[in-house]
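Invent a record, attention on tokens:
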Amino acid sequence: MLKDLFGKRKKYATIPNHQAKTDVPEGLMQKCDGCHKIFYRKEMKKNLNVCPNCGHHHPLLAWDRIECLFDMESFQEWDKDLITSNPLQFPGYDEKMEKDRLKTGLNEGVITGKGVIEGQPAAVAVMDSSFRMGSMGSVIGEKIARAIENARKESLPFIIFAASGGARMQEGVLSLMQMTKTSIAIKRFSDAGGLMISVMTHPTTGGVSASFASLGDYNFAEPGALIGFAGRRIIEQTIREKLPDDFQTAEFQLKHGQLDKVVHRQEMKTLFITLLDMHKEGGEIS
């Protein structure tokens, strides 16, 4: 009688089957590395990969950065077909490079070219940390040097977004030589009166931070970006001192005079427009 009154009760909770689990699309959500809250990936992308809650700046792919910076359909890519070889015959290097090409759709860890920003022309180099952690090999150095030289010849201002773990170990001294190559190109560009804007994103370390990333007429960084040459542990072991918690952050570098400004990603384009307007025809303020 009581059974009829209350009906049958399930003894155990049901477990969703495999089909039910796959109904939720993979990659739909993204967890913030700063506040650990979860957001729709589309919402994060719309916000330029900046957390809507805490403002943490997540890495931005090179093409996404170019898309949000330049006027629609104005960007022209340079040296797209330059591909890294294996000059030192390092074991497994060719396979790793091919794997990254398939994963990212890029031939190398930097995209160079020119475009128009709110009606003002500019050349650009955008590094992408998703390709070999943005490590600087021969082709990255060559593409950046060529882009700077093209900017000089065409009297264009040059903007570079650095994102790198440093030199590419598989290319040994050839990687380190790119520091000199790019620095010389910047000197020629500067002597010709060119304007260079450098933006350091997370992370900008090693030989990249010690060369072209730090040689801009304006040196900016995104909030919270790791910027430095050697790692914290190596420095602490060398000087036998404990370093501050914010050591090598963009805010630390600004405080100690290594940067001109820490700029929120959503304010970057407006700042560029102002600077490009000040430096008409890509050069010094008249």
